[in-house]
Amino acid sequence: MPSKAIEVRDLWFRYEEGEWVLKGINLDIEEGELVAIMGENGAGKTTLIKHFNGLLKPIRGYVKVKGIDTREASVAELAKFVGLVFQNPEHQIFAETVEEEVAFALRNFGYDKEEIRIRVERALKEMNLYEYRDRNPFSLSGGEKKRLALASVLVYDPEIIIMDEPTTGQDYKQKQVLGGIIERLNAKGRTLIVVTHDTEFVAEFFDDIIIMVDGRILARGRVEKLLTNEAIMKKARLLLPQLAEAATYLKGKVNFTGNYLKVENFVKCIAEAMG
Amino acid sequence: MSKMGSLVRIENLCFRYFRSERWALYNVNLLVEDNEFILVTGPSGCGKTTLCRCINGLIPHFYEGEYKGDVYILDRIRVKDHEPYELAEYVGMVFQDPESQLITSSVEREIAFGLENLGIPREEIIERIEWVLDLLNIRHLRKRAPYELSGGEQQKVAIASVLALKPKVLVLDEPTANLDPASSAEILQLLQELRAKMQINIILVEHRLSLIADKVDRIVLMDQGKIIAEGNPRVILGSKKAEVIGIEIPKVIKAYRELFGEEDWVPLNSREFAEVVMYALESHRS
Known about the structure:
The complex is a heterodimer.
Chain A: E1 4-13, E2 22-30, E3 34-38, H1 45-49, E4 60-65, E5 68-69, H2 75-79, E6 82-85, H3 98-108, H4 113-126, H5 142-154, E7 160-164, H6 172-187, E8 191-195, H7 199-205, E9 208-213, E10 216-222, H8 223-226, H9 230-235, H10 242-249, H11 263-274
Parallel strand pairs in A: 3-8, 3-9, 6-7, 7-8
Antiparallel strand pairs in A: 1-2, 1-4, 4-5, 9-10
Helix pairs in contact in A: 3-4, 3-5, 4-5
Chain B: E1 8-17, E2 25-32, E3 37-41, H1 48-56, H2 58-61, E4 65-73, E5 77-78, H3 84-87, E6 91-94, H4 107-117, H5 122-135, H6 151-163, E7 169-173, H7 181-197, E8 201-205, H8 209-212, E9 218-223, E10 226-231, H9 233-238, H10 240-245, H11 251-260, H12 270-285
Parallel strand pairs in B: 3-8, 3-9, 6-7, 7-8
Antiparallel strand pairs in B: 1-2, 1-4, 4-5, 9-10
């Protein structure tokens, strides 16, 4: 039986005395799962994932990460197996050079020099940042800073990787690279939780998604079921992926099966209808 | 001369930022005619933002560097010779992050600010505020403070305060980059409506081609500081060049090409795609 990476029970949270931001969340994410959390700004996505590395603690209910109750563990303890990549990289960046930034966690965990050098070089090349290794992180563009933040988490290879809006400010090519990295990490058995409202990106790289609205989980399921459900998408203020939109026009004329949000499957369904 | 009547004319423009080894723009030529909606796109670092800055005068007046060639507005105003505030009457600029642009305590004050700076008479300022609040459908936001608005509302206010100056050209540099999807779609829809309602030329920088390709007249494709292709969206998005430099090709275009092969025409939205498929299904049955 697969064990749980994340277990959330009746989680309620609010900042100070404000409105409840999370209203009774129940959620299980198994080890090795790849899941996208979607919803509009203010739905509670970021607040939820900040519970997964202990940055926030539940006001009611509990969150367990690999069986450890986050109320009983420090962020530093959880950081050994949970890596969180923030939406705003400025919250994460502090070193003087790009290379130092990426090496920081490894030094902290006591890796030897040679191992650090090899890993840093690999991570920087993978994120297309190697030529900037001597630059000050703050001189990078917004998109580059985001990739740097990702590199500094990937470099120590945590078991659970959480990314908050990794595609904003990235062009199409970079998004494809990011999608490839996500797939590869998942194939290696890592658990990946990605917060995003980029429906085209999710349609291409994810099968399992969670949709949040107003502090609650509205639905969880297969991408082609949820992202094509107009009622759910409207409630979540998300845009139908382009192929879902095209499929609604062709309803009754083409029998769409499988994950038809991927171009290859979509084309196959139409080709069958054309005989 | 054939060059007469252009709104923006860019001639052999090269620009290299201070201390940079690379040309951010190299030998760029572009003519913007009257009443056009132009999309400028390309991978990160291709020079899109630099191009916008050259049109509104931030380059060379604010960003230092090596500048060659020329940019003219309305054929006669040479950007090099005028400060950005002088150009604001002709070129309106909207940035990625609306917060950086909004400075006053109410939406109304925000719209009045630029007009006061241009020395427009009081009565006309009032008239223009009313006009632009209606144009963008934001009358209900009038007394609100810009910082308490949502990102999408802020971006509408930024657009309103720029349009109040009645510029000939509206330049928007990734105006939806920080917005959620529904708000992004709303802003892009709004641009299309503005085009229909008033004489305005739009130059828009945007990555998400599936949301915008069917709304523009022309696509300018940039890579490594150069314009590598420009023309009708169907031609540009159907070309190999777009695929090679790695911009987003809308998924209906990919699906269309797999089903129907390489043709000159490609669909620009899901409705056009579905119409072609339905036609093919029907002719197949009969």
